[in-house]
Hints:
Chain A contains eight helices and six strands, in the order H-H-H-E-E-H-E-H-E-H-E-H-E-H. By secondary structure, the first copy, chain A, is of the alpha/beta class.
Amino acid sequence: MEFSSKLIEKAVNEMSQLPGIGKRTALRLVLHLLKQPKEQTGFLSQALLNMREDIKFCENCHNISDTKVCEICANSVRNHQTICVVEDIRDVMAIENTGQYKGIYHVLGGKISPIEGVGPSQLNISSLVEKVKSGKVVEIIFALSSTMEGDTTNFYIYKQIAESEIIISTIARGISVGDELEYADEITLGRSILHRVPFEKTFKNN
Amino acid sequence: MEFSSKLIEKAVNEMSQLPGIGKRTALRLVLHLLKQPKEQTGFLSQALLNMREDIKFCENCHNISDTKVCEICANSVRNHQTICVVEDIRDVMAIENTGQYKGIYHVLGGKISPIEGVGPSQLNISSLVEKVKSGKVVEIIFALSSTMEGDTTNFYIYKQIAESEIIISTIARGISVGDELEYADEITLGRSILHRVPFEKTFKNN
């Protein structure tokens, strides 16, 4: 792509570094900004800069937060003895949206993935193990996505905390609510049969 | 969507103002920036700001340019008597890529579109009419996309310059090179029959 303007070229090049945004899309976005008032570009740049400079991570659960300890960890009503292990802030948001979880979280910041060069030392695993060893934790819930990397990470952590006398659970895998059985893949359907739950549980409150 | 951080929320809100980028995509992009070195966010913000602040438009053809007169208009080898009328810089880039055009351009900056509230006065039409009336132009080539808005814009300009003694042409519509006839729509196929060209022209150079 040849540009008639170095300024446009530079903006497009920087924009197309973002995942899923190619040169063409980047050019479309940049031209859109050109048509909008100057302030919009100013607001966007400033918001990104502020976010990148001032962002903090909760020193307890490592979630993204504006304060030293995030709102969830600072909430004394929540059950601090149950820790849900997730990959990143998006998973926290997804679980919070269900309104079904009253414990706290531990954000790993990724999954063990040799292909992408992510090893255990780059993730917030040691602080989780320490928490468990401190004896204040009653249950750990693994809520990583059910991929090769997720399972590897689960197992890596499990090996380090298996000797502690705590409950270690993982979120249930099974047929989505509202799904037809015939379209489910075999592994999911198989798991949902193996891990069947007492029928009474499905209509009684816990 | 509820965010645990106002900084993230603001960045996501600004990002999702861009066309085709929803809140979820914006969050993905913002989290990507968080994982990259701080410099990348700095470069991106700076490139966008510089682009928006310092961008110039060629005073002759209104194309985006870093200088007062763009490279194409400043090039004395090009034929300044032939003007190709296009919508924006993307069309200039597309035509330049063909390597088939040696004239200069006139960038309208959009198409007449009552639905989007774009009238003739918001486009660079009057300066085009002036150029034609100055008598230095021999041919005008309309190269707007073949939509209702494009045709309206073509016709609006045509009405104002029809009395000048210049050649007014429009780019050929027809079956794409490499396309099968049976899959072409009727209107395009019809046009390509009506506007058939002497066979000799297709293998002789001009």
